[in-house]
Amino acid sequence: STQWSRRMNGLKLWLSFQVHGRQAYEEHIDRQLKLAGEFAGWVRRSEHFELAAEPDLTIVNFRVKNGDNQAVVDAVTRDGRRWISTTMVNGQSVIRMMVISYLTSEENLRDLQQALEAAVRGSLASQPQAQRSR
Which of 75, 71, 85, 60 is nearest to 115 (CA)? Predict the structure, then answer.
C-alpha cells in the first residue's frame, strides 16, 4: 500500500526477516503469547483480580474485584519502572497489560504481579469497611 512505500517502512520489515528469519519471529511471538497466557492464569487464580475477557493475543484485560482500577494503576506505575493502563472493555473500566517488548521476561511479570498485589492491598486498606464488603 502507499503507507508501506513511504520512508521505506517495508524495508525495515524485510531486513529484519532477512537477518533473523521467520523461525525467530515465530519463536518470539510464541514466547510473548506464552507470557501473556501465564499472566492471565495468575489473574484467574488471584483473590483480588478477575479477567475482563479471555486474551487471544498478548494483551490481558483484567480488573480489581472490589476496588479502584485507576488507583491500582497509579500505584503500580508511579515509580516509572512498569507500564500498565486503564481502558474500557464492554463499557467497563479495566486494567490493560501488554507483552510487547522482546525484553519482557517472567521476572518482569512476577515483579508486576507483586506490585499489583501491593497496590490492591493498599487500595483496599484505604477504603471504608462498608465499601470493602461490597
Answer: 75
